[in-house]
Design a protein that fits this description.
Elements (H helix, E strand, L loop, with lengths): L25 H5 L5 H5 L15 H7 L17 H49 L1 H7 L11 H12 L4 H4 L4 H53 L3 H6 L2 H18 L2 H23 L1 H7 L2 H39 L1 H6 L3 H54 L6 H44 L29 E9 L7 E10 L15 H8 L7 E6 L2 E2 L5 H7 L14 H6 L7 H10 L3 H5 L16
Antiparallel strand pairs: 1-2, 1-3, 3-4
Helix pairs in contact: 4-6, 4-8, 4-11, 4-16, 8-10, 8-16, 10-13, 10-16, 11-12, 11-16, 13-15, 13-16, 15-16
């Protein structure tokens, strides 16, 4: 929309020639078109925008301020106690992973014991009645075709002294003892897993909560150190998002969800190592599925992280619109701009819709791929296991090995499935950490921050100086950093004599408040000099100036504290008597005493106005 075009016409509608495309009916955007180009938008990440629609955070992206953070850098705000708690949680996580592997091994072992025992009881009967079996095929064990070749193998299996069939042909009591031993181990593992799970989640949550609390403190402190031009360029909604939304997502991303994801990764590697120790041949054959799944996981994580970051940017832009409208709702209503703002808000949300669709589509494809890979593991595992058992000279632990290996590889793929939703949470937290950590990192930038705001206490006597003398503005020129094409002050010369009242009179926007901002060093003049008693104000500390110069703006704001505490902000070490006198001199004492809920004993302690 050009400068000469009206915002709204007489009928309250948008001009038809709107450059931003807001003039089109919003309902037309909600009706999907049956064309290839429409469906292609589901998977298109193009976020092109013209120069007129470029947002402040997009400019920061171009300046590389929106920097990336490493995997471990997201934990950089952990102190010594938090690190100790995290290491304890990781140790408990390792114990948990070992117990899961032991459970799989014992389950495979007990299944093998039952299978071998059942086969051992039948194989002698099969050999003694071979002729009857071939003729009637009535007593053959399920799944075994009786022929001359199988008869030879059954005979070797039943009478070979090195085989499980003969070596483990125990009595019923011995068989039961072996089974019960395994069951006791399973019960012990269950108790250990319960204790380890409870402790690891509790300890890890405490450690992460300590870190995010420190992040909130550092982030708020970094914002308090910013200079005024920084706030001119960045809207307040962006700070609210960083303080509350992004840090909360970081806490969720590196909290219990991250611990579960880390446990799944640990379980994958431990399972693979165990399988290769048990039977490296069968494990090597099944290992071909792992690189395929890992490649898919890598692609999935990159796509998901990109979509998550785009979603954050869109929600942040939409949040700014909401805050603008709510804070200026009278202006919006006076211009009949409600529909215009609604369209602008929905346009920002449209990109989040497509981003969400792409995220869910990626998750669905990946989960389907994991299910397909699991079935491939079962099929390939049993095919090659049957070949190894058929041609092996010593069967020994073949049945147990096969069951354990196949179950562990299937568990690996199940772990990959567990990683998917929790990795999405971690990706969201990692993406939120980029914008959340950025203001903290900018604390070291001298161009964005006030100097020495936290180096000394404002109530310290050494920081208080007496400012007495004439205030003079010499050839002052000023251009706001956020509006470099507009000159606010041009060759201003002014002298305010001591012990005299000087009035600056002018229309709105003429620079009256700007002069006070320069005197308090909210801005630095583009050229010229401001002196107090002949000494440049740059020779005074910022705290000294602001401690001795009082200012009441057009819209004064009371902080969320008592009236007593609000008055004391002008002098933190003021006594109660001084505060009472200040209220009387400002002709506010009688007004305050007429307010409801006044506690005379604690003096002015009113919760709100």
């Amino acid at each position: 929309m050009s400068d000469r075009q009206p915002l709204l016409d007489a009928s309250g509608k948008l001009p038809s020639g709107d450059d931003d495309g807001f003039g089109s009916d919003i309902h037309q955007k909600q009706v999907p078109k049956s064309s290839f180009s429409t469906w292609r938008r589901y998977f298109s990440r193009s976020t092109k925008m013209d120069a007129n629609n470029k947002k402040p955070d997009d400019e920061d992206d171009a300046n590389d301020r929106y920097h990336d953070i490493g995997f471990f850098e997201i934990f950089r705000h952990a102190d010594g106690i938090s690190v100790l708690l995290m290491l304890t949680g990781l140790l408990l996580l390792a114990i948990h992973a070992v117990c899961v592997l032991a459970n799989l091994a014992l389950f495979g072992k007990i299944t093998g014991v039952f299978a071998v025992e059942s086969f051992d009881n039948d194989c002698h009967k099969v050999h003694r009645n071979l002729t009857a079996l071939i003729t009637y095929d009535s007593d053959c064990p399920l799944g075994i075709a009786v022929d001359a070749d199988n008869n030879s193998r059954l005979y070797k299996l039943c009478h070979n002294v090195d085989t499980v069939a003969l070596a483990t042909s125990p009595s019923s009591s011995l068989f039961r003892a072996k089974v019960m031993t395994i069951i006791y181990w399973l019960i012990l593992i269950a108790v250990v897993v319960w204790l380890a799970s409870f402790l690891e989640y509790a300890i890890w949550s405490i450690a992460i909560r300590r870190q995010t609390a420190r992040m909130n403190i550092l982030l708020f402190q970094s914002l308090l150190q910013r200079n005024v031009p920084y706030f001119d360029k960045h809207p307040a909604s962006q700070f609210n998002s960083n303080l509350f939304g992004n840090i909360a997502m970081v806490e969720k991303g590196i909290g219990v969800d991250f611990l579960i994801m880390l446990g799944a990764v640990l379980g994958i590697w431990a399972s693979l190592i165990t399988c290769f120790i048990i039977n490296w041949k069968l494990s090597l054959i099944l290992f071909f599925t792992v690189p395929i799944v890992m490649t898919g996981s890598t692609i999935f994580s990159k796509l998901l992280a990109r979509e998550t970051e785009n979603e954050f940017k869109s929600y942040s832009s939409a949040g700014r619109i909401v805050q603008e409208v709510v804070s200026s709702v009278r202006t919006v209503f006076s211009l009949n701009g409600a529909k215009f703002e609604q369209q602008r808000y929905e346009k920002e949300l449209e990109s989040t819709h497509w981003s969400t669709v792409r995220q869910r589509a990626i998750c669905g494809v990946f989960m389907g791929w994991l299910s397909f890979s699991s079935y491939i593991v079962y099929a390939v595992g049993f095919i090659f296991a049957s070949m190894f058992m058929s041609y092996a000279t010593h069967h020994g632990r073949e049945i147990t090995d096969v069951l354990v290996i196949i179950m562990m590889f299937a568990q690996c793929l199940a772990y990959f499935g567990m990683i998917v939703p929790f990795f999405q949470s971690f990706s969201e937290g990692h993406g939120a950490g980029k914008s959340g950590f950025r203001p903290i990192d900018e604390e070291r930038d001298p161009n964005l921050n006030e100097k020495d705001l936290f180096t000394e206490d404002a109530s310290n006597e050494d920081s208080v100086c007496n400012i007495v003398g004439d205030i003079e503005f010499k050839d002052i020129n000023l251009v706001y950093p956020s509006r470099k094409d507009v000159s606010v002050l041009h060759n201003l010369n002014l002298i305010a004599r001591t012990n005299k009242t000087t009035a600056l009179v002018g229309g709105s926007g003429s620079g009256k408040s700007t002069c006070m901002s320069l005197l308090l060093r909210f801005y630095e003049p583009s050229s010229g000099e401001i002196t107090i008693d002949g000494q440049a104000i740059t020779q005074y500390s910022i705290k000294c100036l602001r401690q001795n110069i009082g200012i009441v703006s057009q819209e004064p704001i009371l902080f969320a504290m008592t009236i007593y505490e609000n008055i004391r902000l002008g002098k933190l070490n003021a006594t109660r008597k001084e505060i009472e006198e200040a209220a009387k001199e400002a002709s506010a004492h009688d007004f305050i005493m007429k307010l409801p809920h006044v506690c005379r004993f604690c003096f002015y302690f009113v919760s709100y106005m």
